[in-house]
Amino acid sequence: MKKSRYLETLATLVASGLSIRDACKEANCSEATGYAIASTDEFRTLVASIRTQAVEQAVSVLTSNATKASNALVKLLDSSDEKIVLAASSKLLGSLPGMQELHELRTRIDRIESQGAGLRVAR
Question: pTM for this structure?
Answer without folding.
Answer: 0.60
